[in-house]
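Amino acid chain:
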Amino acid sequence: MQPNTHPLQNAIPWMVVLAALLAVGAWLAISPEGVLGKVDAFGYAVCHRLEERSFLLDDGRQLPLCARCSGMYLGAVLGLAYQAFVSGRSGQLPGWRRATPLLLFFGLFAIDGSNSYLYMLKSIYPTGLFDQLQNLYTPNNTLRLFTGMGMGLGIGVALYPSFQQTVWQDWQAKPAIATWKQMLTLIGLALVVCFLVLTEWDIVLYPAALISAGGVLAVLSLVYSMVWIMFMRQENAFTHWKQLWLPLLAGMTLALLQILVIDVVRLWFTGTWGGFPLPGA
């Protein structure tokens, strides 16, 4: 005899599917027209989208994310994809020695971000307290891209093994980035991506726009999928990807709902899908 299950438990998959359809429908309804308009709605939820801090297509249209956020989410996607290719179901972080470059990247991200923010404050308030604070250097989009990429690699390297360890019954207790060769290869690939983006060719920027904005949804979806699995007390209960359709759909739905809420609030507050309006601008 099959054990009895609570009716609500049987209804959960249908509720998640319905919620997903409603969330996707709402995203399609409120987001701007066109492919880039749709992905703008992802970037809009996490990025200031200031035009002067963003890469532009040849027609003058800015990417969905600023240079720093573009680098960060490109790096996160690259880190996740690379580990999926080389690491299987490895579920541990790299040792602290191999993690040293990532810690360095985090420090550079913090320094460049703080310096850039100070520069922006001084441009908004040309006289006052901030005049007494000196910038380390003049910020630029090249540095924003590189430091964002480094931070994104750290996100991907941390998120991938966390997901494996949460989900799989047969996850492997070894680092997902297990050797210096793997770490240096990942960093090398990130440098290649950065230099390609810096060409500012449309043939590069257009897919970079789609991947980076899609990375916002992907990262949030993976995080919320893990939250869903832990909430449902299903840790290490899965052996095949087909079994993950419900947690992944639930994670994507929660991520999309978060994006929608932030989009609606920001749009109501600013009245524009463009960059966040600055005081005195």
In short: The longest strand covers residues 172-175. The radius of gyration is 21 Å.
